Fold each of these.
Amino acid sequence: MELSQFVQNLMNGLAIGSVYAIFALGYTLVFSILGIINFAHGAVFTLGAYFTYTLVVGQFENNGLLKGINLFPNGSPFSGQPLTFALATLLGAIGAGLVAVLIERLAFRPMRSRGADPLLALVSSLGVALVIVNLIQLLVGAEIYNFPSDAYGDTPPALSFVLGGKVVIIRTVQVIIFAVSLVMLAILGYVIGRTKIGKALRAVAESPSTASLLGISVDRFILITFFLSGFLGGLAGTLVGTAFGVAGPYFGVVYGLKGLAVIVLGGLGSIPGAVLGGLVIGLAEAFVPADYSAYKDAVAFALLFIILLVRPQGLLGKNAIQKV
Amino acid sequence: MTDFLSTYGFLIVTMIQAGLLGLSLYFPLQAGQLSLASPGFYALGGYVAAIMLTNPAFAGLRDALGNGVFVLTWVVAAVLSGLLGLAVGVPALRLRGIYLALATIAFVEILRVVSLNLSFTGGAVGIFGIPQSFGFQDRWQYIFIFGPLLILTLLFARQLERSRVGRALRAIREDELAADAMGVPPTQYKVLAFVIGAVLAGIVGAMSAPFLNTWNAKQGTFDASIAILAFVLIGGSRNIWGPVVGGALLTAIPEVLRFLADWRLVINGLVLVVASLYLPQGIVGALERLRRAPPPQRPASPPPLPTAEVKP
């Protein structure tokens, strides 16, 4: 591989890998607290993208129930400039976080209070995903939307340089995605590692019953976890939508599955693991040779399968001791 | 009668087929192994049948065997699924719980992407114009092959449960370490249960390819994994009737809700949520409880929260 190609792949891999990382963090946070996998996370990802889309565009042309409704007759206040677009992204992610909280209240908490089989939580969260995806389809149509990327789309590449006679192009949106992801990781790392909320969260993750004995309101911290999870998932959805310029009702399905591969690769429940796993899978996909690009979607699952056989606890997972 | 069958026959056959796929997941679950691999073997079986029934390379075989070729597709699908099940099962069944579930999801996805990109599986388009089994004129006639398979599978499952093997599987489900200590080799039994499920899913696939007339990579997806898991959990995972009832009902619900038009898939999702919240033992489990009055006593204290311990 030529050096220019190598650098290009590296940059592409880092950008997409960092989105995988923040998406997968949402999964892993919930897993570390509840020990369940929230299969609705992929749907929350899609929702985040649609919320941002709604704020920026404000109307839907496709054949859904909302067809023809214009939310902003005088033009959306969120379109046009990078700053307002960023505000819409933030609000979209908050919206996704609130939906995740709602999911917890309606689909997980009743089950938890009854001590039901955690497997049922799997089915329940899948039911929620079905409801969300089909509601989106009903309201705004099954077609794929061109995601507004005018905030960054027309800006010139952030960086382009010649390496060994070939041009390497790093798109602005890639830089933005990478930067936003890094900032999110730093904030999350700070919140979980340094603040009182983070301390309580870690206590709940360690042992919910002990935490509640110590006066921590477990239910409240589970809600906080779900909000963070939904926020990260929704943010990832908008970032991916902006990077690729499209969104559709089934937008999150592939990401939902790849996110699973990411968290298992890194180590279920491990936050640094989710970041490492995201970057590894992003880079591995970016380096798939063009001739085999059809197999790109299998890369994450091949890595998942291999890691499960070689090191089931994942790259950074703790070596669990089996209970007798 | 014929009117009824020609109207609802397709649905009835699909309900039986769903029950069979539910049972294919039920076998490994009997040993406490949550495997979501069924759609992978189902897809494999379907491709085996589709290729043997349409590919020019097998024209001579088809001419020589006549209708026997349909039976041959079931046998070949069963053997190949069993072998692949063995190859995947031996390493994968070292994993437990959610890890096994994720490994089998990965297996299904890898198979899907591979089948999407091979030429003899028809790529993204798939395989078309698969001839009808035994020259059936109507779709409902598939009851004649799916029905006996369901009865045989149920008989087999009942006999298995009553046998030494069935007791070993249950022992492993309840406590693998204790079973191991008592001299029940967990790995062998777990692989056996997994392979039985794989063979069943493969045969169902081979029967389904002519039934659906076309076969493509959409047949074995993650969505199917979850749908089949829902059949078992909503129906009831502790009784052979659970997967059958769950599969039949969850297949019928979207049809019954057809009058709701576009809302029916939303309702379908809600059904999953509500059923998993209010029928934790599944429908069959709840019915059994009702039959076995006295009513269960409420536990004195709420059960502990699930903790996030990691069990590789």
Amino acid sequence: MEKEAGKLLELKEAVARFVFDGAHISIGGFTLNRNPMAAVYEIIRQGRRDLHLYAHSNGQAVDELVGAGCVRRLEIAYGGTGRFAPTCIRFRKAVQAGMIQVEDYSNYQMTLRFMAGAMGVPFLPCRSGLGSDLIHHWGFSEDLRKTESRLPDEKMVVMDNPFGSWGETAKVVLVPAITTDVTIIHVQKADALGNARIAGLSFADVEQAKSAEHLIVTCEELVSTDEMKADPDRNCIPFFCVDAVVHVPHGAYPTACYGYYDYDPAYLKQFADYTRDDPAYETYLQDYILRIDDHESFLEKIGSETLGDIEADPETGYANNLDRR
Amino acid sequence: MQDYTLKEMMAVVAAREIHNGDIIFCGTGISMLAAMAAKNISAPDCVIFFETGAIDSLLEEVPLAVADSRVMYRTALNGGLAEAFGTMQNRFTGKRVVGILGAAQIDRFGNLNSTVLGDYDHPAVRFSGSGGANDVASFVSRTIIFMKHEKRKFVRQLDYLTSPGWLDGPDGRKNAGLSGGGPSAVITDMAVMRFDEQSREMFLAECYPGISVESVQENMGFAVDCSRAVEAQPPTGRELEILRNRCDPQRLILG
């Protein structure tokens, strides 16, 4: 019954309870949209270390966690936030300095790996990777894979189609399932039980959510179970998958949340500037994260004018004609 | 004096590669602009499609990433990654998908590196990684590649093969177990390259007005056949008007 009641938590409590040093963790969202940033900043404030982070293209959250020194190992398809940082800068620096270990996959492979975890199968097949170095180059060595029980012995496996030529496919690539200790996603609406609704693109959030032993859902709006059950076609995650529900308006800021607010171009540009050298980044960490009590205080620092500028148009879901230069 | 920029030329040249009925896989940056230009100029019935799961995006405003909320407005369907890549891997729908990719390095068979420069374990430069590029390059009917025309980018040997082109020649993809087509055009800030039907090696197809065959070759780390090169058609007034005023009025990508 522990997944049925008492899930409505403060962010500090949810992070303290489920995100521990060395945890295997995944984060929802994609590049500059619907990253659970409030939770990411709280993880940084609580000083979590040695995280094993799984990501497809979760740009901003990955770069902030890597930049703050929370991450030891990273399995990833893409570290970038679009035009603001075609390659995430703290990620780039950390890899080049050998400060984190990275294993590369493609976006589809990462999606299937989460899906396999969600489905309860050890792997899923695909046709991605054939002929490429994704297969040949391993970021995690064979020795590490053999000694670390949380890692599969192989990065991925190429095999002949066991059904012969069925499906007009000669070879398949098997990618191993991911199961995390904790996954964190940010959604538009949830109820106190954990029923959750994503509007716009779901990315791989649902697969990530279901591949986790523990799931934290942060939400823009906390609504009644009655409201969620009145329109069930739009719900994405059922309550019994969820361990913690946290009501955090603007919980994806400075990334976007479709239908609620846009990404903040000024913040993302400023972030990219801060990331370029270490002393400047330390200043950023102190001023925007570590010396700030919580997400509410962070939003106060950002100011209501900025939040007003990025407010989404109810029809388009983004801030029309926002100055993004 | 030409009255257009090289970025505008690249977007227009790429747009001309797109036909009605194509499903266009867009990455970030100029590839989005090329798809928007195609949709607005020459191929109104092409479908703009993103790996994030947005299918048939209207794109009232240019997105700055494939997860930008602008890709979600007035789509046929807002799905997720599993659906998007499934569409590309699907044996029926995949044949209609044209991918637009970019990379840090390309070789003569159109194989791409967007992962590292130097040794993988101790890279001199780390890039974003595959994202969906490897998947697209593996599955779809053909790919269009954007490159900056520089010697260090057109290399004999990739430091890391992120996304398969024609691999090592005519039978490369088949031997590796890949179906689908490979790269069909490389669009740079100087020229358009294509791939020989027999050898699958890159050749110079078109030089932009005012750019010589010699200067194209000088900016590449390997030799290409230049015997088939012709001068590219510059953008028309109408193409430029739509690109500038309709597609990217803030010049977010055109610069």
Amino acid sequence: MRRLPWTILAWACGLAFFFPVLWMVLTGFKREADAASNPPTWVFMPTLDGYRQVFDRDLTPYLLNSLMASLFSTLLVLVLATPAAYALSLRPVGKWRDALFFFISTKMLPAVAALLPIYLVVKELGMLDNVWTMVILYSAMNLPLAIWMMRSFLLEVPASVLEAAEMDGAGLLVSIRRVLLPIVSPGLAATALICFIFSWNEFFFAVNLTATRAGTAPIFLVGFISSEGLFLARLCAAATLVSLPVVLAGWLAQKQLVRGLSMGAVK
Amino acid sequence: MSSAATLEKAPVRPATKRAGPAASRRDRWSRRAPLLPALIFAIIVTQVPFLVTLYLSTLSWNALRPGSREFTGLSNYATVLSDGRLRAALLNTVVLTASAVIVSVLLGLGLAILLDRKFPGRGIVRTLLITPFLVMPMAAALLWKHAIYNPAYGLINGVLGGDTDWVSSYPMVAVVATLVWQWTPFMMLIILAGLQSQSLETLEAARVDGATGWQTFLHVTLPYLRPYLELSALLGSIYLVQTFDAVFTITQGGPGTATTNLPYEIYLTTFRKFEYGEAAAAGVVVVIGTIVVATFALRVISGLFKMEVSR
């Protein structure tokens, strides 16, 4: 029973960290008067007004932009990263280590140092406020992570399995399709999830390169920054809605998340 | 931890199976081919812009003054390095990154230790704990600014009473607290993975040798965790040094320049002052600083691999 205090402490910490999220969700269901009351309202009649107003204020196109940018960049990243990871793991090219570190070093360069030329080029090409611009930038942002992750999953394929396939006379493409892909598909899914999360949450490039046509979900939230005339319930409803997809996905894939975020170095 | 072990073994596999120089050249290219699209894409989208930044940094170019674009050599760098605002931004970046990383790694370590034991509802508690990390950063920043810090109807004053304006009274603390709340779960996940990979035999051996729980933690577990602590601090630094959402939303860099970090300052120089040359030079300075840190960082990652191989 001397363990009980530690269990209570663990639960208390969990609830404390979760509380702001709970508060956000609850506030989204309040009337504006209840949301902005002091002291805070704990008991209230839930209403869907906040959510209704968020959709009235046209959240939908922003959500669609986010969905498109995240989905297509995730696809592009997987198409680029999977073969690259293959070339850096199972049948490594010479200097594979240098290539691997080159990719990760691009992740360490601050985005702000590349913003100006990217902005100028995109403007010159007439691609400002365009979803496809975001697809390309998000792909570049997630590519190193995806390569490192996919590589660590590919390395788990037992060499004997591949050799057996070769002995049976399977060509390279066949053994990739029939042997490799089925084994690494959970890894592929985890990589896709991480890329999707980072793209969905990205703000820096979105705020500088998009506006009304290609604005993503975080850009919708920018309208709530100033505190004058703030509608707190509506803000919380919007914040809950845009966070929901990633929170749900993250809850479902906790294990893969750790490994992905630490670039496969930790399992 | 098998990945790192195979990492070292992988290249030992025979490079070519077929004989003859022509065949081996073809074989080399067939190995390279899958890598090339990713490599070319990464170079075009990440390296070329940086080279352009280098070029722009030598221009005197304010986008508001047409025709002002001319070569000025290194004078932008002189401006940047002697600029008080930029020095303040550099200092703020260091303070913000270091304090957020240190606090969240320590909290993450504590939480990981709590979660390492079996207890009723452990899965639920872990799920509750990681949620802040999953909330969209922009949403989190707005939530803290308005629902928690707001002087009139924020939660802190609502519970404690008083009318403190938390954001303007303690701007840096307000930003760091938000970041710590978001990043502690991430640190916890990595450290927890480390704790759970520790072999029970070692811990058992320590107990047989008569070590107390605290001694075991200090002399066995903590040294074992070191690479995981380093990794979490390192990855946290890579992301937190680029903090933009929280500064942009909660304080707009203020009051004054109290919370203006380098990404936000360069953003202001580019999109509010339109001093393209200066912004580019500041960007290059940031990159040089990052390269210094990243060199160290890459060594830590390599060290992590090596350690796993020797195990």
Amino acid sequence: MGKRVGMEVSIAAAEVVGLCDVDVIAAYPITPQTHIVEHLSELVADGHLDAEFVPVESEHSAMSTCVGAAAAGARTFTSTSSQGYALMAEICYIASSLRLPIVMAVANRALSAPINIWNDHSDMMMARDTGWIQTVAENGQEVVDLLLHAYRVAEDPRVLLPVMVNLDGFTLTHMIEPIWLPDKDEVQRYLPPYKPQIRLDPRNPMTFGPVGMPEVYTEAKKAQDEAMNGALPVIVEAWQEFEKQFGRSYHPVETYKTEGAEILLLTVGSVSETAMTAVDKMRAQGRNVGLVRLRLWRPFPAKELVNVLKTAKAVAVVDRAMAFSTRSGPLCTEVKAALYDHGVSPYVQNYIAGLGGRDVTVEDFEMMAAKTSDGLAKGLPMGYEIVNVRE
Amino acid sequence: MSWKDLALGCTLTEPGTAARLRTGDWRSMRPVTNYELCNKCGQCYIFCPDMVYSRTAEGYYEANYFYCKGCGICARECPKDAIQMVQEEK
Ligand code: SF4
Ligand code: SF4
């Protein structure tokens, strides 16, 4: 039986990765991810975990280590943040193209400049097109659950793609929370041993990552695109199995008090819990506001999202990163595209909030909902606003 | 070849397939040897980075255009100026 503990979320993340019987951990410390790999080094040093712990000299090497180890058939883990992810990005494309089921926790943090170690979603959004599956946690329990889920999905022979579990830097990584930590038996019942389909083995030589001439590159990308789209039902299935075993349920798109809501807030990550409080408050005042939380960022669950959004009159999309796009953050751009594709056109307001660790409060969500409702009533053009920026 | 035929991760599951890689497709110039000038020294054979030349029964060196990518090294190294690079025509 597992146990309920009060634990720092980073430590819990490391504990569950340890329970997953990883073979190779590549570690480079970067704030606010550091505690995750630090605790894994303790688990290995203390003999609780029989794994190769590889302290590397950069994140580029961290992902390279994971790629090499995964190609040889090992279960691998690493973790990063922000600039560290940026340095690692080159190899992240290779990991997904080679279809290696690496799992990585990203402690979300703003990108420089100016140097900022606090939380936003710049790194998550930068990772958008690397071909990795990306899930997002809202609290410590979900970090543990999603890491376990990540290995199960990544290693499924129908998927074989790397998975990134996003957790907000500091607001999650450095919090002590009540967490239900599974035990080894429970983990093993959920996560079968990894059986690589193909791997580097001198007895059966093969070449990973050969040159792909113009005649084959397009086909290779198409195959990857199919794998990513095909991963969605497997991700959902793994969550259903998770619910059966652990009783906690996850969905690509999750809702909170959306019944009959005219205005829907759309959020990603830990800020969703503040948004829930705001929705409770607004509902108590008789305002028809609900909340939609995106659990899965890649593959993008467009159909599921549109299904939820289509009943609302207006949507307030809360982005936590910049896209320097056409008056839309990265999430809103995608939401608008999904709505257009499905022939649905609610009124959409985009708010860029909580950049570089700036607080997003209950009052902020009330303001966003009120402005959206006002814009809708007055027929104002669909808006784009950086919340609380000083003019 | 359809995308469905690709091995997982575009892996080459069969060793030695580089021998089937037609590097000659990249060529815009091809080396042509004038055997009247050639002294059979073998410099072209030694310097060619793609092992294009092979020795014939008479001791001359013959190019295999399947692999020759047209770099011109052989023509530059030939001490007798026996090799000319000529425009490839399709
Ligand atoms: S042109 Fe280059 S590749 Fe071709 S035969 Fe000469 S040296 Fe070899
Ligand atoms: S380098 Fe020139 S002279 Fe020497 S074998 Fe080749 S073609 Fe003949």
